[in-house]
Structure formats: structure tokens, C-alpha cells
Write a structure and sequence with these properties.
Helices cover about 15% and strands about 20% of the residues. By secondary structure, it is of the alpha/beta class.
């Protein structure tokens, strides 16, 4: 799997997974993107865990969506290699809730 949600699959719907509280992505060496658009609302997402997904370089998060996100855990090297597409505001919002972890169930 390379993409979880493709833009053409959502047909303009913003709140695709309105009850999703935890997203755990583990051991997906070819996984490249959670969603091909940054316009989705992650209204219930609270916890995001990423482990061993080295090709995942961006997060579909901005300063307006995922307002309930409380925690992101992942390997430090993965976090350091994320591409923020010159969006320092998003990085500043997410950096305080990131915790480096080599264990994906912690």
C-alpha cells in the first residue's frame, strides 16, 4: 500500500473519517501518503503513531484540521526527514506534541 486515501475516492468530502481517533501506521516500507490532499478534516483524530514508514514524507495536517490531535509518536529520524513545504506554522503547532519513540504501542 502506498496511499491510504486518494483524492478521487473522497469526491469533495472533507470529513471522510469523522470518528477516527487513533491512526496507527506500522511496517509499511512503501507507504508514501496518508491522503493526497491536505484539505480533509481530521475532527476526531487524537493520536497518530508512525513506525517504519520511511517513504512517508508529509502529513495531511495544517493549522486548521486535526484540532483534537494530542500526540504524534514516531521514530526521530522519520520526524526529522518530514517535508513541511515551507509551512513553519504547521511545524510549530505539531512539534510540541511529537514524541520520539521506537516502540509503536507505547
Amino acid at each position: 500500500i502506498e496511499v491510504l486515501i486518494r483524492e478521487e475516492d473522497i469526491e469533495g468530502e472533507r470529513d471522510v473519517l469523522p470518528k477516527l481517533e487513533i491512526l496507527l501506521l506500522v511496517n509499511l516500507p512503501n507507504f508514501k501518503t496518508i491522503c493526497s490532499t491536505h484539505t480533509l478534516a481530521w475532527s476526531s483524530l487524537e493520536l497518530l503513531r508512525i513506525h517504519n514508514c520511511p517513504k512517508l514524507k508529509t502529513l495531511p495536517l495544517d493549522s486548521d484540521n486535526a484540532v483534537n490531535l494530542k500526540s504524534i509518536k514516531g521514530q526521530q529520524e522519520w520526524w526529522d526527514e518530514l517535508e513541511w513545504t515551507n509551512n513553519d506554522e504547521v511545524y510549530q503547532r505539531l512539534q510540541p506534541i511529537f514524541a520520539a519513540s521506537n516502540e509503536y504501542f507505547s
